[in-house]
Write a structure and sequence with these properties.
seven-stranded antiparallel β-sheet; five-stranded mixed β-sheet
């Protein structure tokens, strides 16, 4: 049996010894002579409804159930108050997912409320309070002390509990102010309810209860409106942040992380659409990306495949609503699901699925906001892709896909600045030129020459050291920028590269003759090396020095060799 299971059993035993046993004791010793069963039933119903429909503060539910339990206490004593309170707590358990963690929370809350009821009732009697009393001032003092002790003891016990677990106190100064300020709301409401019960009887439940729940409904609607406005504001901010990103991977990862945070989703799955099937692109769980194998989903299969087929979003509030559609092993804790198509210009680019371990975690307003956020994502992704392609075209050689001379010169200045600031000690340039390349073009044709250039580019790219840069400087000339390489190290690298090129066999298909058949061709190269600060401390001079070493020291000396710049 797991440690968590033993912990739950232990809590149950403690709860059983304290709460049911305690209530039975108080029923035997504090039971009033007569109880109106209709009143008792209405107290329980109103208490349960208050717990089931709380207002929220900072995203956390705030229950005002004492407006019901306190009049029950004043009328019938501690035993009835405990019954109303405990049944209200139990009702709250049935609207959340019934798992081990929430079951433990139920036992702890039940024990806590039992102890609070005893402490508050004791304080009430100490200051002279009496059950069934109609004396206003005595009643006011007793009720004020009851509520004050109840709140203070609650805060004290929770702080003690969190300190014992080595956790931070759940109460801030604002929380404490809020807790004590509810005295102003609860005291007059509870006293008015109790006094009206004595004067007008059962009609008090309607006269007090109806306005109370109407007020709570208005507060909840206002809170929901505020929440929607906050969602829209945050979604707009996320959209703005995505719009300035120019890397596709960054756009995607930030979109998933921000979406998970905004909707408090425990899981985010991003599927890419391949016409008739979906491929899982990203799996985000527990604030981290998961890299696990996941089978592809065909159109119409599973929740995501169904959304792809219908091109309409879906919301499921609990597991049993969607489990029948699942085609793969679903996560055990998953309850709520929100799934939308990511579409742009009438094309479905992918499917986004959000999951939560809580029931009814997503609503219609969240669906609309997520759909808006998905549009931001697709537009930002396409913009990033366009920027990358444009950058690629401006920085890369179209034939070899290596960096072009413009980028190389900018990078050279950047690396020289790093050296002059002391970030690196040396900077070397290796310039390489194919020997007798014109002869290759004249013999086999320019397309064959292009094939050799492309093949050589792959060799040079594969040989690139870490932190280095390789580019085509023009024609058949290529340049390496090697930060951190001394001249001796750069010459050694160049010599290895020269031998590698000499030994490589290129296969081309000549395009000058009528017969198209593969031909094997070998080439050689001449290489020039210059370094900073040994040879110069100026960027363009370093490049010219490598060029001078290439043509004077290597080509004029017979080609197929490496030469270093000599002052």
């Amino acid at each position: 049996m797991s440690e968590k299971k033993w912990s739950t059993i232990g809590l149950f035993i403690i709860w059983f010894l304290i709460v049911p046993t305690g209530i039975i004791y108080f029923l035997q010793t504090q039971m009033p002579e007569s109880i109106n069963p209709v009143y008792l039933m209405l107290f329980i119903i109103f208490g349960v409804l208050t717990v089931l429909f709380p207002i929220k503060r900072n995203g956390k539910p705030v229950s005002l159930v004492m407006w019901v339990t306190l009049p029950a206490f004043l009328m019938y004593g501690i035993a009835i108050e405990m019954i109303v309170m405990q049944l209200s707590i139990l009702a709250g358990f049935f609207v959340v997912k019934r798992n081990e963690k929430n079951l433990q929370r139920l036992f702890l809350n039940s024990i806590l409320m039992f102890l609070l009821s005893m402490a508050a009732a004791g304080a009430f009697f100490v200051v002279g309070g009496k059950i069934g009393s109609a004396d206003f001032w005595t009643l006011l003092i007793g009720v004020a002390v009851y509520r004050l002790v109840h709140t203070s003891t609650n805060i004290g016990l929770l702080n003690t509990y969190f300190e014992m677990r080595g956790a931070k106190s759940p109460y801030t100064i604002k929380d404490l102010v809020f807790e004590y300020s509810t005295l102003i709301l609860i005291l007059p409401l509870a006293m008015t309810f109790y006094l009206m019960l004595n004067m007008v009887g059962i009609a008090s439940f309607l006269l007090i209860g109806f306005p109370f729940f109407m007020t709570i409904s208005i507060i909840r609607l206002y809170g929901r409106s505020e929440k929607i406005n906050e969602y829209i504001k945050r979604a707009g901010k996320i959209g703005s942040e995505l719009s300035v990103m120019t890397d596709e991977e960054t756009v995607t990862t930030q979109f998933i992380m921000k979406t998970s945070e905004l909707f408090k989703a425990d899981y985010v799955f991003l599927f890419m659409n391949h016409d008739q099937w979906l491929e899982l692109e990203k799996w985000y769980e527990g604030r981290r990306f998961v890299n696990l194998p996941f089978q592809t989903v065909q159109i119409g299969e599973g929740i995501a495949g169904k959304v792809l087929e219908m091109k309409e979003p879906v919301i499921y509030s609990k597991r049993k609503d969607w489990e029948q559609y699942a085609t793969v092993s679903a996560l055990e804790e998953l309850e709520s699901v929100l799934c939308i198509p990511l579409s742009h210009n009438n094309k479905t680019n992918g499917i986004l699925l959000l999951g939560s371990n809580r029931k009814a975690a997503f609503g219609d307003h969240q669906l609309k906001i997520l759909d808006l956020l998905g549009s931001y994502y697709i537009v930002s992704l396409e913009k990033a892709r366009y920027v990358q392609e444009a950058l690629q075209r401006s920085e890369r050689c179209a034939l070899t896909n290596l960096y072009n001379y413009r980028y190389l010169e900018e990078k050279l200045h950047e690396e020289m600045d790093r050296m002059n600031m002391g970030d690196i000690d040396d900077l070397s340039v290796v310039m390489l030129d194919i020997d007798h390349f014109k002869k290759v073009n004249d013999t086999f044709g320019h397309q064959s020459g292009n094939d050799i250039l492309y093949g050589l580019a792959r060799i040079l790219e594969k040989s690139l050291p870490d932190n280095g840069t390789i580019g085509r400087y023009g024609g058949e000339e290529f340049v390496y920028l090697l930060p951190g390489y001394s001249k001796e190290e750069a010459v050694g690298f160049a010599e290895q590269l020269r031998l590698l090129i000499r030994q490589h066999i290129f296969t081309i298909i000549p395009d000058l003759g009528e017969d198209k058949y593969p031909v094997k061709v070998s080439i050689t190269s001449s290489v020039g090396v210059a370094s900073a600060p040994t040879d110069t401390d100026e960027a363009m001079n370093l490049l010219r020095n490598a060029d001078r070493a290439l043509y004077i020291g290597a080509k004029q000396a017979g080609r197929d060799r490496v030469a270093e710049y000599v002052k």
